[in-house]
Write a structure and sequence with these properties.
By secondary structure, the protein is an alpha+beta fold. The chain has two domains: 81 residues, Glutaredoxin (3-Layer(aba) Sandwich), CATH 3.40.30; 115 residues, Glutathione S-transferase Yfyf (Class Pi), Chain A, domain 2, CATH 1.20.1050. A four-stranded mixed β-sheet has the order 2-1-3-4, with helices on one face. A hairpin with a 2-residue loop joins strand 3 and strand 4.
Amino acid sequence: MSADRIELFSYWRSSAAYRVRIGLNLKVLEHQITPVHLVRDGGQQHSEGYAALNPQELVPSLVHGDRVLHQSMAILEYLDEVFPEPALLPDDASGRARVRALAQLVACDIHPLNNLRVMQFFSDTWNVPQPERDDWTRHWMRVGFDAMERMLVESMDTGRFCHGDSPTLADCCLVPQLFNARRFHLDLSPYPTLVRIDEACLALQAFDAARPENQADAAA
């Protein structure tokens, strides 16, 4: 199974795809990235060909051999099960629960409220002006980051990274969300722990190579 080709359908600025790029890099898995532009041509994710691959018409999608996987969190856990080293989840049940909670705080509570299709609905259907859309985005980031900062500060399990001294699923989710926060000019000074962990992550080649600006389709 490990010899099967791996192809990631990605968009350079998609935080969900960014998570998976980090995970693939951490596991040093050879893979091909196929860009899917989320804005050009009315959104290439809505094309007939891509919709046949992913009925949700979202990125990322991961093809591993003859298997097609959807949803970034499911993809990352699949990679962790099929390619167990280095692990993205701790060995113990309580550690795994903590890492999943931190990851899902981002992936389930922050990100869905400010992703592209939500912003497009606000704009195209409700005619919400850009300043109000940006305020909405920053508000929900602050709500999530307030909680995440506290969860990290109050836990002895926090180390150099979100959980201990090795990157986990939680770090794969945190770093892309902080990229989004900077895009929307969110003041990150209330979140020194998040910023410290982000810096530690981005010092690693696996995270640096996954940065949006380092993708072949960046601003193409």
